[in-house]
Design goal:
75% helix; mainly alpha; Tetracycline Repressor, domain 2
């Protein structure tokens, strides 16, 4: 009896191809779910957004939402994280090329200008979601945990910027290092963007210029 011979290389290639297709499909499904959740959270708020609504908007089953991302808190946290990063890649903000370039800058004013430019880009993407998160955190403990983690990450980013200013010998002595970090941390709060751009109808360009001047005035020491 002749047994069919299987080319092991072809088998590996086919399995690898099928695995790659499945992974790509899973990634696309996850992106569709998070995109749907982002729109619903920003438009309707956390409380009014249901898993069923997310599933319907994304064109998937309720079970798929839980399997691909998780419950409402996980959806909101993922949506916020992706909006901050601008993509779904698992790379910390501090390790991204744009921030590495900013932190490598030796001119303090240029460093802060680059950082503020990044913050405004983030605010444009995340402001509506962040507003939904803050409202949800008042009554939902899971959302409150998500908000606290977001605040800690923002604080870590602020510390990096202040540390770099200190390293350059440019940090003001008019306030303590702790207060300087707090000022930098406040600058990362999307609420500032919401109040001035969304509520008071400032242009994004005007907001960026104001935030840049404010940080330079408060964090950079005057030339001797």
């Amino acid at each position: 009896m002749n047994t069919p011979r299987v080319n092991p290389i072809d088998g590996v290639v086919k399995r690898s191809y099928r695995s790659g297709v499945r992974a790509a499909h899973a990634d696309a499904t996850r992106r569709a779910i998070v995109s749907a959740a982002s729109r619903l959270f920003a438009e309707k708020g956390y409380g009014a957004t249901t898993i069923d609504a997310v599933a319907d908007t994304a064109g998937v089953s309720r079970k798929t939402v839980f399997t691909a991302v998780g419950g409402k808190a996980a959806l909101l946290e993922t949506a916020v994280d992706w909006a901050v990063a601008g993509d779904d890649q698992p790379v910390a903000i501090a390790d991204r090329d744009q921030i590495r370039t900013v932190l490598a800058t030796t001119d303090p004013a240029a460093l802060l200008a680059g950082w503020v430019r990044f913050l405004v880009e983030v605010d444009t993407r995340v402001a509506g979601l962040f507003q939904a998160l803050e409202i949800a955190a008042d009554s939902d403990t899971d959302a409150a945990d998500v908000l606290e983690r977001a605040r800690r990450r923002r604080l870590a980013d602020a510390r990096l910027v202040v540390a770099r200013l200190a390293e350059l010998g440019a940090l003001t002595s008019a306030m303590s290092r702790t207060h300087a970090v707090d000022v930098a941390w406040l600058a990362t709060d999307p609420v500032l963007f919401l109040r001035l751009v969304k509520t008071r109808a400032w242009t994004t360009k005007a907001f960026e210029a104001w935030l840049r001047r404010s940080l330079v005035d408060q964090l950079v020491k005057l030339p001797s």
